[in-house]
Amino acid sequence: MKLRQLLTGFVLLCFTGAASADLEPWKDYDISEGVTSVTTVKVDSNMIDKYLEGLSQTWAPANDVAKELGQIEGYWIHVSQLPNGGDFNVVLGIDFKNGASAMAADKAQYEAFMKKWGEENQKKSDQIVTTYPDIREIVGEYMMRSITFK
After folding, report:
1. N or C: which end of the chain has fewer CB within 10 A?
2. What's the CATH number for 25-149?
3. What is the average pLDDT score of the chain?
4. What is the pLDDT of residue 7?
């Protein structure tokens, strides 16, 4: 009985602490101007290298072009060391200077990208990505900002 009362008290204390938080953006913490597009992917654990090979020929070179053109700040890939340990095992990220650049549809940027990327790269990419549904599932997409406490 005492253990149950102790646990109940602890849970109530946790909720009370959370409810009394009065942090204010830009007063207590800063929010980044830049945003990161994050995609979580569940890849069949025996197919991670095959998926990475495809990304190295499609996603990464396309992001290199976008970075060279100043359309993105950078990109990254993280792979779980425990490929069967959760809902996803690969995380893809693209860093943008700000939210507007991440969400804006821009014909001039698209045309500049396609000119530099080229028709051959697009054909190759189109061919490779057709294999992705057999080995992976996109399980989440997020637009995230960094928080820095003051």
Report:
1. N
2. 3.30.70.100
3. 90
4. 45
What type of residue sits at position 143? M
Is the pTM for the entire model greater than 0.90? Answer: no
The rounded distance, in Å, linking the Cα atoms of 48 and 131 is 13
Q: At what angle do helices 107-117 and 59-68 cross, to 10 degrees?
A: 120
Nearest to 109 by CA among 69, 150, 55: 69
pLDDT digits (tens, 9 = 90+) for 27-40: 999 999 999 999 99
| In the chain, domain spans | 25-149
Which helix H or strand E contains 54, and what residues bound it? helix 48-57
Angle at 20 (CA atoms; ends 18, 22), nearest 5 degrees:
100
Q: How many CB atoms lie within 10 A of CB 95?
A: 19
